[in-house]
Every structure is written in C-alpha cells, then in structure tokens.
C-alpha cells in the first residue's frame, strides 16, 4: 500500500511517502511559514522525487488535530480534496498521538504529548508505553489549563515523559507539581514525523471523505468572541440574523 501522510498541526510541516511501512521519502520543515503556500508544493516535490504518480496512492493519512486552527484546516482540506479527486482512502490521526508515536520510550512509561494552546492552556494527550513498544491511549485528547492537566497527572505514580517543542514553556510548572517524576528528553523527536503518522494510519479505520472533519477541541477565537457577545441568542434568532446580514 502506498501512503501519503502529512501534518501541519503546529509550526512544523512534515510530509512523507511510505510503502508497506518502508519510508520512501520524507520532508520536515520546522520554521514558521504559511502552510497553505508550502504544503502542496512539498507533496508534489516528493512525488516527483520518487517518481510516483498521484493516481498510484492508495491512502492519504492526515493529522486531524488538535493544534493550530488554521494549520489543521489546511491539512484536512488538502487531504479531503486529494482523497476525493484521486478516489483513494482517507485516514485521520490525532496530532498528539502522532507526536507521541514519533519517538520510542522505556516500557511502562506515561507519555504526555503537549501543544501550547495559549493563555496557560494546552492541548494534551496521555498514552501508556507498553512493553511491546505500542502506545495505548489512557485518556482522550483534551484542551485545558496546564494546572488542570498537572492536577490529573499528579495522581499517577510512574515516571511521566513530556513530548513536544512547547514543553519548555511549562517546565517550571510541571516540575513544581510532579518533581523528579517528570521527564523531558531532548533526544526524543519534538515535532510530528509524517513517517510515523503514516504507520499509525496504515492500521486505522478509513474515514468517509465527505463527512470527515478536524478535531479542533475548542472553538476558534472569533467564534468564542461571537458567542460571548450573543450567548443569549437562540438558534432560530441566529439563523434570522445571518439571513438579515446576507
């Protein structure tokens, strides 16, 4: 099976071509840039480099969030467009799971992939590294304050490994609550690898392309502000307001 996988959930962009779990080509850029401009050229360049035709692709695997609202929307839109146009399978994978899966940890370790969601909030997952090298989700991905996350993590007894390039921003708070149980190893990959994203996607259920949507875990800031200003408006009033504006 030939897989195209890509992630633009956060600052980094990663694109990979994988065939039968073998990495054929991968490109990762970890600088702030406009993913809407760079993603399709990166995909096209990799396909040309390995001399694959787009029609040869069997599956598209995309990191579906959480993360940057704009980045997720770009990746999911491109993934759905390609899957629909090429008539190939589409799989969405948690961006946090993909980040956690991009490194290997000691057995029986709790792994917490983390993205900065601003204002002392984070997107975080919680995974357990099994002895066989497989990650198992302990809880659903969440959007919450760093204080709420750490309060939950304090209930666990085992070592906890944090992963993600945003972890240093919260490291002081993490150590204050978890002490020596908290670990952050810079040798671990701190951004998503599209190769490992593809490997996760090879074993995951296929999505219905028209119904597939991102997992933002929170509203966009503009939507939150609108709801604050119109929180007492009923659904029928909202529809009338939109019609009036049109």
How is this structure best described in words?
By secondary structure, this protein is of the alpha/beta class. The protein has two domains: 2-96 and 192-222, 2-Layer Sandwich (Nucleotidyltransferase, domain 5), CATH 3.30.420; 103-183, Nucleotidyltransferase, domain 5 (2-Layer Sandwich). It is 35% helix and 27% strand. The protein has helices at residues 35-50, 69-86, 95-101, 146-153, 171-178, 194-202, 221-229, 235-245; strands at residues 2-7, 13-19, 22-29, 59-63, 89-93, 109-118, 121-129, 135-145, 160-163, 182-183. The strands form two sheets. A five-stranded mixed sheet has the order 3-2-1-4-5, with helices on both faces. A five-stranded mixed sheet has the order 8-7-6-9-10. The termini are far apart. 37% of the residues are buried. Residues 222-227 and 237-246 have low confidence and may be disordered.
Strand and helix order: EEEHEHEHEEEHEHEHHH
| CATH topology tier name of the largest domain | Nucleotidyltransferase, domain 5
Shape: globular
Helix content: 25-40%
First-residue to last-residue Cα separation: 47 Å
Rg over alpha carbons:
19 Å
Q: Please tell me the CATH architecture of the largest domain by its name.
A: 2-Layer Sandwich
Fourth-level CATH superfamily of the largest domain: ATPase, nucleotide binding domain
- Ranges where pLDDT stays below 50 over 5 or more residues in a row are 222-227, 237-246
* Count of structural domains: 2
Largest sheet: 5 strands, mixed
Q: Would you tell me the structural class of the helices and strands? A: alpha/beta
The order of strands across the largest sheet is 3-2-1-4-5
**What's the β-strand tally?**
10
Q: How large is the count of helical segments?
A: 8
User: What is the level 1 CATH name of the largest domain?
Assistant: Alpha Beta
Tell me the fraction of residues in β-strands, as a range: 25-35%
Overall mean pLDDT: 89
């Amino acid at each position: 099976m030939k897989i195209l996988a890509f992630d633009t959930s956060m600052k980094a962009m990663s694109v990979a071509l994988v065939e039968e779990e073998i990495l054929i080509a991968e490109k990762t850029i970890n600088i702030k840039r406009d993913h809407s401009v760079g993603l399709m050229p990166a995909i096209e360049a990799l396909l040309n480099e390995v001399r694959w035709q787009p029609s040869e692709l069997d599956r598209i695997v995309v990191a579906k969030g959480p993360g940057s609202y704009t980045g997720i929307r770009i990746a999911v839109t491109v993934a759905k467009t390609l899957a629909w146009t090429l008539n190939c399978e589409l799989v969405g994978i948690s961006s946090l799971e993909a980040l956690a899966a991009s490194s290997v940890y000691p057995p029986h370790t709790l792994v917490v992939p983390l993205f900065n969601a601003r204002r002392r909030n984070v997107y975080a997952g919680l995974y357990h590294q099994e002895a066989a090298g497989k990650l198992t989700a302990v809880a659903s991905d969440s959007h919450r304050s760093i204080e709420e996350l750490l309060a939950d993590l304090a209930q666990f007894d085992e070592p906890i490994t944090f992963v993600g390039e945003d972890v240093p921003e919260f490291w002081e708070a993490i150590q204050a609550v978890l002490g020596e149980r908290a670990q952050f190893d810079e040798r671990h990959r701190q951004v998503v690898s599209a190769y490992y994203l593809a490997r996760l996607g090879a074993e995951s259920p296929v999505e219905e392309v028209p119904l597939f949507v991102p997992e933002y875990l929170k509203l966009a800031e503009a939507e939150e502000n609108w709801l604050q200003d119109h929180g007492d408006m009923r659904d029928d009033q909202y529809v009338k307001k939109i019609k009036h504006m049109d």
